[in-house]
Amino acid sequence: MNETDRPGTDQCDEAAPTNQSHNRCAFVLGGGGRWGAVEIGMLRALVEAGIRPDLICGTSIGAFNGAVFASAADSDGIATLERLWGSVAADNLLGARPLDRARTFLKLRVAVQDPGPLRTLLEDALPVNRIEDLAVPFQCVAASIERAAEHWFEEGPIIDAVLASAAVPALFPPVEISGEHFYDGGLVNSVPVDRAIELGATEIFVLQVGRVEQPLRPPKRMHETALVSFEIARRHRFGRVRDRTLDGINIHVLPSANDMAFDDPRQIKWSDMSETDALVAGAYEASVAYLAALDAQP
After folding, report:
1. Which residues contact 264 (CB under 8 A, 6 or more apart)?
2. What is the pLDDT of residue 17?
3. pLDDT tens for each residue of 191-212
4. Distance separating alpha carbons of residues 29 and 192, to the nearest angstrom
5. For the whole model, what pTM was predicted?
6. How high is the pLDDT of residue 143?
7. What is the pLDDT of residue 272?
8. How would you classify the pairing of strands 25-29 and 203-207?
9. Which among 208, 165, 225 has a CA at the least distance from the CA of 39?
C-alpha cells in the first residue's frame, strides 16, 4: 500500500465500467461534521485534475457530500455542493436557538436537532431517489443499534441512508429503516478505506477532514474527553488499513489544510458555519499542489 505512487492514466483519469466488482478508482469521504467542507475543495481539485471515481464510499458528512457528488461527478456536482453548504450557512439550518433546541428535545427526547431541514435540502438537490440510480456507484455506512454493527447501504432510498449515516448521537435522533435503527457511521467506520478495498479499488483517494494527522494527548478539560475518545475510534481503524502493505493498492490521503488541533474549543462549535469558505479554499489549494506533485512523479 503506497500513499505516493502516481495513479495510472487508465485507472482514474477516465470513467470506468460501473460494475462494483470491477471498480478501480475510489473516492473515500470521511466523517467530520462541519469540517466536511474541506471535501468540497478536495473534490474540486480532483475534478480539475481529470480524476474521476468508479466508486464513492462515504461516512456521515462524507456520505452527504459523496451522495450529492455521485449524482454528478463533475463541476456541476461541485457547484451543487457549494450551493448546499451555502444554504446550510445562510439559513442557519444547524444553528437553532436554545429555545428551539429545547423544544426539539422535548419532542424527540433523544436529540436536539430536527433532521427535517437536511432531508428537504437533499430532496431538492438530488435528481434521483435511489442509490442504484446515481451516476457513480455509491455506498455509505451507518451503525446499527440493534446489531451493534456497521451496515452498508448499497441500494434503496438515498436520503434515508445518508441521514442514517449522519445521525450523530444526541444531535440527531436515530434513523429507522425497515424496522432497524441507525446512528452515525463514524461510530464504526469513520474513514472507510477498507470498504473501497473490499470492492476492488486499487487507486484510492482519501478525503478526510484533517485531524488524523495530529497527535493526541490525554484530555485536560471535560469537553476534550469525548473528542479524544472519538479520535481514538476514528484513527484506529483507518491507521490499521493505511499501514498494511497490500501489493497493487495505492492510497492517496489528500491534505485538508485544516490544522486546527483536536483540543481547539472551536471543535465543539458544530453549528458554526462561518469558516466554510476558508475551509474549502484551503483544502482546494493544498490538494491542487498535492496532485501536481503526484503527477510530476516518474
Report:
1. none
2. 36
3. 999 999 999 999 999 998 876 6
4. 8
5. 0.85
6. 97
7. 66
8. parallel
9. 208
Q: Tell me the three-class secondary structure of the chain, residue by residue.
A: CECCCCCCCCCCCCCCCCCHHHCCEEEEECCCHHHHHHHHHHHHHHHHCCCCCCEEEEECHHHHHHHHHHHCCCHHHHHHHHHHHHHHHHCCCCCCCHHHHHHHHHHHCCECCCCHHHHHHHHHHCCCCEHHHCCCCEEEEEEECCCCEEEEECCCEHHHHHHHHCCCEECECCEEECCEEEECHHHCCCCCHHHHHHCCCCEEEEECCCHHHCCCCCCCCHHHHHHHHHHHHHHHHHHHHHHCCCCCCEEEECCCCCCCCCCCHHHHCCCCCCCHHHHHHHHHHHHHHHHHHHHHCC
Residue 162 grid coordinates: 445518508
**Residue recorded with cell 458555519:** 273
pLDDT of residue 182: 98
Q: Provide the pLDDT for residue 32.
A: 83
> Hunting for cell 436520503 — which residue is that?
159
Residues 159-167 have a mean pLDDT of: 97
d(CA 15, CA 265): 42
Residue written as cell 419532542?
Answer: 107
Which of 2-11, 28-37, 80-89, 270-279 comes out lowest in average pLDDT?
2-11
Residue 257 grid coordinates: 489544510
Cα dihedral value 142, 144, 148, 153, nearest 10: -50
